[in-house]
UniProtKB/TrEMBL annotation, chain A:
Record's compositionally biased regions (Low complexity): 8-21, 344-358
Region (Disordered): 1-21, 344-364
PANTHER family: METHYLENETETRAHYDROFOLATE REDUCTASE, METHYLENETETRAHYDROFOLATE REDUCTASE (NADPH)
Family: Belongs to the methylenetetrahydrofolate reductase family.
Name the record gives this protein: Methylenetetrahydrofolate reductase
Gene3D superfamilies tied to this protein: 3.20.20.220
Pathway: One-carbon metabolism; tetrahydrofolate interconversion; Amino-acid biosynthesis; L-methionine biosynthesis via de novo pathway
Automatic annotation (TrEMBL), chain B:
Protein name in UniProt: Methylenetetrahydrofolate reductase C-terminal domain-containing protein
Organism from which the protein derives: Shinella curvata
UniProt domain Methylene-tetrahydrofolate reductase C-terminal-like: residue ranges: 74-166
InterPro entries reported in the protein's UniProt record: DUF5981
Superkingdom, natural source: Bacteria
Pfam families with a match to the protein in the record: DUF5981 (PF12225)
Length: 364, 195
């Protein structure tokens, strides 16, 4: 049976745009169809080897609808999100490109958005970014020229109005599905739902939340969100992930900004024989709890350095309900590249001398 | 002086150094460790009063529009900027971005946020309501939310703010607002005449 998200004329062809969709990506299709989506995060390599990226992406094959290419998360240096997206789209993965406002000003960001869309990136996540103090280079200059809200608005204007922030026209707008992050677990708690409303107003179409370890707190948040009717305007993916041990959990709690881990979670991990296994089980339990909450459209699995467990946890929690996410997405320029290679192979050798002469005769 | 005793704060650089993480010498992202936030916090607590007061003040400024025009907005810019910078600097730790958002941010100046967010708190706010980047500073946006609750037009905090126009830095926001209001009034009057 042909996959639902497949071009009827052949799987190697790009998808047709659907009415009402802002991107041609599969993540948007899955969400708009009302299916439970699963996204995850690629641990960015500290190397210049493309194999590292492919290897890390391959573990997720057939289990996720999108892979986040993080933009120096935690303000630590890694391969850039643009670079990762270039590699992933080349291999047909569906990356969600993160853009953090910490390192780039509006000029660089708008250029990156165009570049990414040209490479075939269909999903862009707009983040503020952690402060530079959190990372390995606290002496860096924090940019924060835009904030996540104005970044969302900027990309939305580029997409919908075909314009740069300055008003200059774009000939082809970037067709992207816009995402943002939410953190319901940090003060001021009562402002958080309104902040989501603001993000939606600015252009967010889906959001991924910070790690959820405190389900009652999240329920409380979702209740407010439903009261405001926000779950109908935006797809909410809950951030989940396994904790390797009680010690890591404690370390994260005191060192990573914005992650709230209740004592009960730490107690449960501490009491377990095999903490790693318990961490995984805890994550599955949380997935099973949050998937029942009204207004939740999917999960975002962040299994830092435990990526191999993602498939297992997604399988064990049964959130996909037998659905198999599409593995490879054809890139719009695939055909062009193939033709180019073919031409290079069959064409005659370039004669440098001849080319130089030709160029000399053509002043333009 | 790499081995000088580092002050706590700034995500505790000393603690970080102890873990073996790289900590550059002589860099103190915690620029305001000796700063007291008393006045800034007091202004937020009294945001309702400041809102009222600013309205009266803006009206007076608008009444003085002919005066500004007489001298020329260009020429009064410098002295007014001087006054504005010091008054607002004292009350709100104003950073002179030139496009004041205080009435939309509960009288808590968003430019004091280390990330200069203009649209609400980041996800890193500490459980005690202090800033992620500067652990001794109450998060500007937690304060802004509190301040906006007291204000008559506190809902303005829900508006999505445009990115900062950096070329307006160190210019007077008071004069800009007045000039714009005067221009709007004139176009309205003209439209009334034409009709
Ligand atoms: S915690 Fe508050 S003050 Fe600190 S960076 Fe985040 S929003 Fe700004």
């Amino acid at each position: 049976m042909a996959h639902l998200d497949e071009n009827p004329l052949g799987p190697h062809l790009p998808l047709d745009p659907l009415p009402g969709h802002s991107s041609m990506g599969r993540l948007e299709r899955v969400l708009r169809r009302g299916e439970f989506a699963v996204t995850t995060e690629l641990n960015p390599p500290d190397s210049a080897n493309p194999e590292d990226v492919y290897e890390r992406a391959a573990i997720f094959d057939g289990w996720v609808d999108g892979i986040n290419a993080v933009d120096a998360s935690g303000a630590n240096c890694h391969m850039s999100s643009v670079g990762i997206c270039a590699l992933l789209t080349r291999m047909g993965y569906a990356p969600i490109m993160q853009i953090a406002c910490r390192d780039k000003n509006r000029i660089a960001i708008q250029g990156d958005v165009l570049g990414a869309a040209a490479m075939g990136v269909c999903n862009i996540m707009c983040l503020t970014g952690d402060g530079v103090q959190a990372g390995d280079q606290p002496g860096a200059k924090p940019v924060f020229d835009l904030d996540c809200m104005s970044l969302l608005e900027t990309v939305r204007i580029m997409r919908d109005n075909s314009k740069f922030l300055s008003g200059r026209k774009l000939t082809t707008p970037p067709k992207v599905f816009l995402g943002a992050a939410i953190n319901p677990f940090a003060p001021p708690y009562d402002f958080r739902p309104y902040r989501l409303a603001k993000k939606i107003e600015a252009g967010a179409q889906f959001v991924q939340s910070q790690y959820c370890f405190d389900v009652p707190m999240f329920r409380e948040y979702m209740k407010k969100v439903r009261d405001l009717g926000l779950h109908e305007k935006c797809y909410i993916l809950v951030g989940v992930g396994p904790m390797a041990s009680a010690k890591t959990a404690k370390w994260i709690r005191s060192n990573v900004p914005g992650i709230h881990i209740p004592d009960s979670v730490i107690a449960r991990l501490e009491g377990a024989q095999d903490q790693k296994k318990e961490g995984k089980q805890l994550c599955i339990d949380i997935i099973n709890e949050v998937k029942e909450i009204e207004g939740v459209s999917g999960i975002h699995v962040m299994a830092y350095r435990q990526e191999e467990y993602v498939a297992e946890m997604v399988h064990d929690s049964g959130v996909l309900k037998g659905r198999q996410p599409w593995k490879r997405e054809p890139n719009p320029v695939d055909q062009l590249v193939a033709e180019r290679i073919e031409a290079a192979r069959s064409g005659q050798q370039q004669d440098q001398q001849q080319l130089a002469e030709k160029a000399a005769q053509h002043p333009h | 002086m790499a081995d000088a005793v580092q002050k706590p704060g700034n995500a505790a650089p000393a603690k970080k150094a102890a873990t073996g993480a790289f900590t550059p010498a002589g860099v103190s992202p915690n620029r305001r460790s000796r700063h007291k936030y008393t006045i800034r916090l007091w202004a937020v607590r009294n945001s309702r009063f400041f809102e009222w007061f600013y309205h009266r003040f803006a009206e007076v400024f608008l009444l003085l529009h002919p005066v500004w025009k007489l001298f020329g907005y260009q020429r009064v810019e410098r002295p007014i900027t001087f006054v504005e910078k010091h008054v607002k600097g004292f009350l709100f730790d104003c950073r002179m971005c030139g496009q004041c958002a205080l009435s939309s941010t509960g009288m808590s100046c968003p430019m004091n946020c280390p990330k200069q967010l203009r649209n609400g708190p980041c996800g890193g706010v500490r459980a005690n309501g202090n800033c992620e980047v500067e652990p001794d500073m109450p998060c500007v946006w937690v304060q802004a939310w509190k301040g906006s609750q007291n204000m008559a037009k506190g809902d303005a905090i829900m508006n999505v703010q445009k990115p900062v126009n950096q070329s307006l830095r160190e210019t007077s926001s008071w004069l800009r607002v007045t000039a714009e209001a005067a221009a709007a009034r004139e176009t309205a009057a003209n439209a009334g005449k034409d009709a």
